[in-house]
Amino acid sequence: MGSSAVPISDTVKKIWDKWNLRGFIILSLSLQAFLILCAPMRKRTSSKWVIVPIWLAYLLADWAANFAIGLIASSQTDTTGRRDRGGLLAFWAPFLLLHLGGPDTIIAISMEDNALWPRHFLGLIFQVLAVTYVFIMQSTREDKLWWPTLLLIFPGLVKYGERTRALYLASLSSLKDSILAVPDTGPDYAKYMDEYSSRKAANLPIKIHTERGRGPESKSETVEEAGGDNIDNIAVVQRAHEFYKISMGLIIDIVLDFHQRKQSRAYFDKRSSEAAYTLIATELNFMYEALYTKAYVVHSVRGYILRAISFGTVCIALGFFYKLDKHGFHRFDVEVTYSLLLGAIALDLIAISMLILSDWTVVISKCCRNSRLATILMNKHLNLKRSWSSTTVKTTKCLERTRKILFRRWSESVSAFSFIDYSLQECGRVPPTVMDRVGFLGSKIIRIMGLSDIWVEMKYRSRKKLSKELWKFIFEELQSKSEDAVDPQNGSKICSARGEWILKEYYYGDGGPLFNNLRSRVYLADDVTYDRRILLWHIATELRYYDEKTQKSKTGDDKNSNADDDGGGDDDGAHREFSKTLSDYMLYLLVMQPDLMSSVAGIGQKRFSDTFAEAKQFFEKRALGSDASQKDACGKLLEVNTEIKPVDVKGNRSKSVLFDACILAKELKSMKWKLISEVWVELLSYAASHCRPSSHAQLLSKGGELVTFVWLLMAHFGIAEQFQVQEDQARVKLIVEKPADEFFIGPGEKPLE
Q: CA within 20 to 30 Å of 151's CA: 39, 379, 410, 505, which one?
């Protein structure tokens, strides 16, 4: 049988042989430029339209550079195809080492990439060997570019070495080693007992005295920040860096010191909600840059020196090439070479500007403290990174848009996913149109490709800016709970609360008739799983929310109710919006962040699927589809007679909670919105404190999440389980008691009478 392979024409082969290396060189440089400019957007947005292109560019960048080095190495034995390039191929090879080192703004996509640092280390060795082979082979010929090629190998080694070291330092094993670098053996027990035994053998009276040592909290605070509009941005960054060094221990499940807890609580108790938010945002930014960028490696004396030398060598190489006689070089190859040289300089200049404007520079540099001009300029720059602008500073739409793209430290938004809206949209129009049928076919194809989860998230997830009022409400709730967390044991109990703690407080404690009756009716009993609580309370909150809007629209108060959004208007209206925002956010976490919620979600995905199937069946029977309003859908659900419990009719086979939520919604009509919003804060706090810390760290590279802010705020308030239980640093002393006083009479002295 003959071969079925399609032959490639000689013309195509010639085009490939002529342009393959040039194309990959240009592609590699373009990807480096894209990554250094766009990679910081990962921490500022959670949009798939931004994150996916960055992910693709990250993967393509290494592949393109490795492939180009392979082409250059294989060309050294080619005596016909590339002889006219006269050493330019060897000159291009060190640039690919620079590209493999990657930009400062990204070293990894996920935490798992950091653990693969040995693979990058081996890649460094093999690629350096390949570049050395190319250099040696070219040096055996008459080469005008020998010296500039040798110069460029150094910055290539520096860049690639920085990336490998940054990956190593950001790996969990390295983080654990660095935090546990200085073992604490405590007082020398053997020496103490030897001294005790010797004094006891000498019949000396011994008294054991125990002293409490001065912990870190006894140190005076040298940095103070004001609240509100008068926040000292430089002081906040410096303080955030101090807390960052402590909080990194949370990521690797290190039990923190009792005094660290005491110090953190004392500091945050004195801060306003806005000051605490700014500090936590800065602290998380330090975490992100330490885990996913080269910041930790570059921001050091050694890093600065190596960068300066590398930049200088590239500039010298550019001067060499500019003065070089280019006779015999292909014109396009000369243009590619200039692009590589100028591109390397431009990338370095961008990296230097980012380095100067980084939060790390504020911590390291003394000029921010000693120079008044530098202090003013840095404060203005840091003010652009704040989520809520000062009321004394006017901002334009253009400035705000620029701030969101270039300066903000995280997405500053709260994601939302509405169960009622999702169910209606999935029902389609009634009757279906031609476009609905096309969309149904498209959804089938997406499911076959295994992309249904991504499609649902892109289609149904919405985002809402985190309001100052909502953050203040969450802050004050956790602050009030921290007053009960006088020790780590109470803090652990508060962490374990899943909505019942606030109800116990409101209804006069556990055991009271009001609370016992309420707990059985609103599904906060201990045997109700966490995922069931979220789904129940989400649907019930939506039902009451839209039912209340319907009632107000009938009485003409709908316009006033809309004015309550984002915390404006009357107090109950503000808490209604808080409840709706947190309700939608918690369902988003349960359904669309399964990795984050895996430790607390249980069978959340199965329960959501069964509940959605029942809701879809209910709406389709009543001719409700995507063109129906959520008010109408909620009204139909509340019209169902729920005198008999659903479990008595359907049994336990289905995990749906749709009509249990209808029962709960009717019960919630007698409850104030403030209490409902407090229950949602408690449910959010439970998720924040029980999710894996490494999952919180992973979210930093996807725009960040409110739940991570709550997790760190709880840790600072001492409401966490990662703290030492008892106070330490006790010191024991052996004191030799003096015998009874004796009086001696000297010569010529008379005894006292």
A: 39
